[in-house]
Amino acid sequence: AQKVTQAQTEISVVEKEDVTLDCVYETRDTTYYLFWYKQPPSGELVFLIRRNSFDEQNEISGRYSWNFQKSTSSFNFTITASQVVDSAVYFCALKTTGGGNKLTFGTGTQLKVEL
Amino acid sequence: DGGITQSPKYLFRKEGQNVTLSCEQNLNHDAMYWYRQDPGQGLRLIYYSQIVNDFQKGDIAEGYSVSREKKESFPLTVTSAQKNPTAFYLCASSIGLAGQQYFGPGTRLTVT
Predict the structure, then answer these.
(1) Cβ atoms of A92 and A35 closer than 8 Å
(2) How far is CA B103 from CA A26, A58, B24, B60, in A?
(3) Contact B40 A4 (CB under 8 A)
Protein backbone atom coordinates (compact mmCIF):
# COMPACT_ATOMS: atom_id res chain seq x y z
CA ALA A 1 0.00 0.00 0.00
CA GLN A 2 1.06 3.54 -0.68
CA LYS A 3 1.24 6.23 1.95
CA VAL A 4 2.30 9.87 2.08
CA THR A 5 3.02 11.62 5.35
CA GLN A 6 3.17 15.38 5.79
CA ALA A 7 3.87 15.72 9.48
CA GLN A 8 3.65 19.51 9.53
CA THR A 9 0.01 20.47 9.81
CA GLU A 10 0.58 24.22 9.86
CA ILE A 11 3.60 26.47 9.49
CA SER A 12 3.71 30.22 10.06
CA VAL A 13 6.60 32.36 8.86
CA VAL A 14 7.33 36.01 8.37
CA GLU A 15 7.74 37.25 4.84
CA LYS A 16 11.23 36.75 3.37
CA GLU A 17 11.96 33.78 5.60
CA ASP A 18 12.87 30.47 3.99
CA VAL A 19 10.56 27.56 4.75
CA THR A 20 10.78 23.82 4.09
CA LEU A 21 7.76 21.56 3.80
CA ASP A 22 8.44 17.92 4.56
CA CYS A 23 7.09 14.90 2.70
CA VAL A 24 7.80 11.26 3.46
CA TYR A 25 6.38 8.48 1.30
CA GLU A 26 6.01 4.72 1.44
CA THR A 27 5.75 2.35 -1.49
CA ARG A 28 7.09 -1.03 -2.48
CA ASP A 29 7.10 -0.14 -6.16
CA THR A 30 10.41 0.70 -7.76
CA THR A 31 8.81 2.98 -10.35
CA TYR A 32 6.75 5.83 -9.02
CA TYR A 33 6.13 9.54 -9.32
CA LEU A 34 6.05 12.23 -6.70
CA PHE A 35 4.14 15.49 -6.95
CA TRP A 36 3.64 18.74 -5.14
CA TYR A 37 0.42 20.72 -5.51
CA LYS A 38 -0.53 24.10 -4.12
CA GLN A 39 -4.11 24.80 -3.00
CA PRO A 40 -4.80 28.51 -2.52
CA PRO A 41 -7.93 29.67 -0.67
CA SER A 42 -9.91 29.47 -3.93
CA GLY A 43 -9.65 25.69 -3.69
CA GLU A 44 -8.21 24.72 -7.05
CA LEU A 45 -5.13 22.51 -6.97
CA VAL A 46 -2.18 23.98 -8.84
CA PHE A 47 0.50 21.60 -10.09
CA LEU A 48 4.03 22.54 -9.00
CA ILE A 49 6.32 19.64 -9.84
CA ARG A 50 6.49 15.99 -10.83
CA ARG A 51 9.53 13.82 -10.19
CA ASN A 52 9.99 10.17 -11.17
CA SER A 53 11.72 7.64 -8.97
CA PHE A 54 14.76 7.35 -11.23
CA ASP A 55 15.61 11.02 -11.16
CA GLU A 56 17.11 12.10 -7.86
CA GLN A 57 18.42 15.40 -9.08
CA ASN A 58 17.28 18.31 -7.03
CA GLU A 59 15.31 20.92 -8.90
CA ILE A 60 15.07 24.67 -8.59
CA SER A 61 12.40 26.85 -10.12
CA GLY A 62 12.68 30.47 -9.11
CA ARG A 63 12.12 30.65 -5.35
CA TYR A 64 11.03 27.00 -5.22
CA SER A 65 13.34 24.03 -4.82
CA TRP A 66 12.81 20.33 -4.23
CA ASN A 67 15.08 17.81 -2.53
CA PHE A 68 14.36 14.17 -3.46
CA GLN A 69 16.17 11.53 -1.42
CA LYS A 70 15.28 7.90 -2.07
CA SER A 71 17.46 6.74 0.83
CA THR A 72 15.11 8.45 3.28
CA SER A 73 11.96 8.27 1.10
CA SER A 74 11.58 12.01 1.28
CA PHE A 75 10.64 14.70 -1.20
CA ASN A 76 10.92 18.02 0.59
CA PHE A 77 9.90 21.39 -0.78
CA THR A 78 11.65 24.65 0.08
CA ILE A 79 10.39 28.15 -0.59
CA THR A 80 13.13 30.77 -0.44
CA ALA A 81 12.31 34.33 0.59
CA SER A 82 8.65 33.53 1.19
CA GLN A 83 5.93 35.96 0.17
CA VAL A 84 2.37 36.50 1.36
CA VAL A 85 1.14 35.04 -1.95
CA ASP A 86 2.74 31.74 -0.99
CA SER A 87 0.12 31.31 1.73
CA ALA A 88 -1.78 28.15 0.83
CA VAL A 89 -2.14 24.49 1.61
CA TYR A 90 0.57 22.39 -0.01
CA PHE A 91 0.02 18.72 -0.82
CA CYS A 92 2.56 16.06 -1.59
CA ALA A 93 1.27 13.10 -3.62
CA LEU A 94 2.53 9.73 -4.82
CA LYS A 95 1.58 7.78 -7.90
CA THR A 96 2.69 4.27 -8.70
CA THR A 97 2.52 2.66 -12.11
CA GLY A 98 -0.41 0.43 -11.29
CA GLY A 99 -3.83 1.18 -9.83
CA GLY A 100 -5.34 3.43 -12.45
CA ASN A 101 -3.09 6.44 -12.06
CA LYS A 102 -4.36 6.96 -8.54
CA LEU A 103 -2.72 9.77 -6.65
CA THR A 104 -2.21 9.11 -2.96
CA PHE A 105 -2.18 12.44 -1.17
CA GLY A 106 -0.71 13.52 2.12
CA THR A 107 -2.89 15.47 4.50
CA GLY A 108 -1.34 18.77 3.46
CA THR A 109 0.61 21.54 5.17
CA GLN A 110 -1.04 24.91 5.72
CA LEU A 111 1.56 27.62 5.13
CA LYS A 112 0.85 31.11 6.43
CA VAL A 113 3.20 33.87 5.43
CA GLU A 114 2.72 37.09 7.37
CA LEU A 115 4.07 40.57 6.86
CA ASP B 1 -9.31 28.79 -22.81
CA GLY B 2 -8.60 25.12 -22.20
CA GLY B 3 -9.42 23.79 -18.81
CA ILE B 4 -11.78 22.03 -16.46
CA THR B 5 -15.00 23.58 -15.28
CA GLN B 6 -17.06 22.49 -12.32
CA SER B 7 -20.44 23.91 -11.53
CA PRO B 8 -21.79 25.18 -9.32
CA LYS B 9 -19.06 26.39 -6.96
CA TYR B 10 -21.37 26.06 -3.94
CA LEU B 11 -24.25 23.62 -3.67
CA PHE B 12 -26.75 23.15 -0.88
CA ARG B 13 -29.10 20.18 -0.53
CA LYS B 14 -31.42 18.66 1.99
CA GLU B 15 -30.61 15.29 3.44
CA GLY B 16 -32.15 12.44 1.48
CA GLN B 17 -31.88 14.13 -1.91
CA ASN B 18 -29.62 12.99 -4.69
CA VAL B 19 -27.44 15.71 -6.20
CA THR B 20 -25.32 15.75 -9.37
CA LEU B 21 -22.06 17.65 -9.66
CA SER B 22 -20.93 18.72 -13.09
CA CYS B 23 -17.42 18.36 -14.52
CA GLU B 24 -16.54 19.38 -18.06
CA GLN B 25 -13.13 19.52 -19.74
CA ASN B 26 -12.02 20.79 -23.13
CA LEU B 27 -8.46 19.53 -22.88
CA ASN B 28 -9.22 16.47 -25.00
CA HIS B 29 -8.12 14.28 -22.11
CA ASP B 30 -9.16 10.63 -22.07
CA ALA B 31 -9.04 10.07 -18.33
CA MET B 32 -11.13 11.84 -15.71
CA TYR B 33 -11.31 11.57 -11.93
CA TRP B 34 -13.39 12.60 -8.93
CA TYR B 35 -11.85 13.31 -5.56
CA ARG B 36 -13.32 14.24 -2.22
CA GLN B 37 -11.58 16.54 0.25
CA ASP B 38 -12.54 16.91 3.90
CA PRO B 39 -11.16 19.61 6.23
CA GLY B 40 -7.59 18.91 7.26
CA GLN B 41 -7.34 15.90 5.01
CA GLY B 42 -5.86 15.07 1.68
CA LEU B 43 -7.84 14.14 -1.39
CA ARG B 44 -9.41 10.72 -1.68
CA LEU B 45 -10.35 9.12 -4.98
CA ILE B 46 -14.05 8.38 -5.54
CA TYR B 47 -14.22 7.22 -9.16
CA TYR B 48 -12.11 7.43 -12.28
CA SER B 49 -12.72 6.86 -15.97
CA GLN B 50 -10.12 5.89 -18.51
CA ILE B 51 -12.32 6.15 -21.60
CA VAL B 52 -15.89 6.88 -22.59
CA ASN B 53 -18.46 4.41 -21.24
CA ASP B 54 -15.99 2.95 -18.77
CA PHE B 55 -15.29 3.85 -15.16
CA GLN B 56 -13.77 2.27 -12.07
CA LYS B 57 -14.34 2.64 -8.34
CA GLY B 58 -11.76 4.44 -6.29
CA ASP B 59 -11.16 4.18 -2.57
CA ILE B 60 -14.46 5.66 -1.37
CA ALA B 61 -17.06 4.92 -4.06
CA GLU B 62 -19.89 3.88 -1.74
CA GLY B 63 -22.84 6.26 -1.99
CA TYR B 64 -21.66 7.79 -5.27
CA SER B 65 -22.33 7.07 -8.93
CA VAL B 66 -20.87 8.39 -12.19
CA SER B 67 -21.41 8.23 -15.92
CA ARG B 68 -19.11 8.87 -18.86
CA GLU B 69 -21.24 9.21 -21.97
CA LYS B 70 -19.04 11.87 -23.54
CA LYS B 71 -15.30 12.39 -23.46
CA GLU B 72 -15.71 15.93 -22.17
CA SER B 73 -18.07 15.20 -19.30
CA PHE B 74 -17.88 13.14 -16.12
CA PRO B 75 -20.79 13.98 -13.79
CA LEU B 76 -20.83 12.71 -10.22
CA THR B 77 -24.06 11.90 -8.40
CA VAL B 78 -24.03 11.97 -4.63
CA THR B 79 -26.85 9.68 -3.59
CA SER B 80 -28.85 9.62 -0.39
CA ALA B 81 -26.88 6.50 0.54
CA GLN B 82 -23.75 8.57 1.12
CA LYS B 83 -23.73 8.98 4.89
CA ASN B 84 -21.59 12.06 5.13
CA PRO B 85 -21.81 13.94 1.82
CA THR B 86 -20.80 17.41 2.98
CA ALA B 87 -17.33 17.98 1.50
CA PHE B 88 -15.31 19.70 -1.20
CA TYR B 89 -15.37 17.79 -4.49
CA LEU B 90 -12.62 18.11 -7.07
CA CYS B 91 -12.65 16.83 -10.62
CA ALA B 92 -9.44 16.15 -12.55
CA SER B 93 -8.38 14.93 -15.98
CA SER B 94 -5.26 13.59 -17.64
CA ILE B 95 -4.18 12.64 -21.14
CA GLY B 96 -4.01 8.98 -20.22
CA LEU B 97 -3.84 7.10 -16.99
CA ALA B 98 -0.12 7.80 -16.78
CA GLY B 99 -0.43 11.50 -17.47
CA GLN B 100 -0.28 14.38 -15.06
CA GLN B 101 -3.65 15.28 -13.57
CA TYR B 102 -5.11 18.75 -13.96
CA PHE B 103 -7.73 19.86 -11.47
CA GLY B 104 -10.90 21.90 -11.71
CA PRO B 105 -11.90 24.65 -9.25
CA GLY B 106 -14.05 22.32 -7.15
CA THR B 107 -17.63 22.26 -5.83
CA ARG B 108 -18.36 22.71 -2.15
CA LEU B 109 -21.40 20.61 -1.26
CA THR B 110 -23.30 21.18 1.96
CA VAL B 111 -26.06 18.77 2.95
CA THR B 112 -28.29 19.65 5.90
Answers:
(1) yes
(2) 24, 25, 11, 19
(3) no
Q: Give per-residue pLDDT as tens, A16-36.
A: 999 999 999 999 988 899 999
Which residues of chain B neighbour A101 with C-beta distances below 8 Å?
Answer: 31, 33, 48, 94, 96-99, 101
Could B90 and A101 be called an inter-chain contact, meaning their C-beta atoms sit closer than 8 Å?
no
pLDDT digits (tens, 9 = 90+) for B44-83: 999 999 999 999 999 999 999 999 999 999 999 999 888 8
Q: A99 pLDDT band (50/70/90 cuts)?
A: low
Which of B31, B88, B99 lies closest to A43 in CB terms?
A: B88
Across the interface, whether the CB atoms of A44 and B41 are under 8 A apart is answered: no
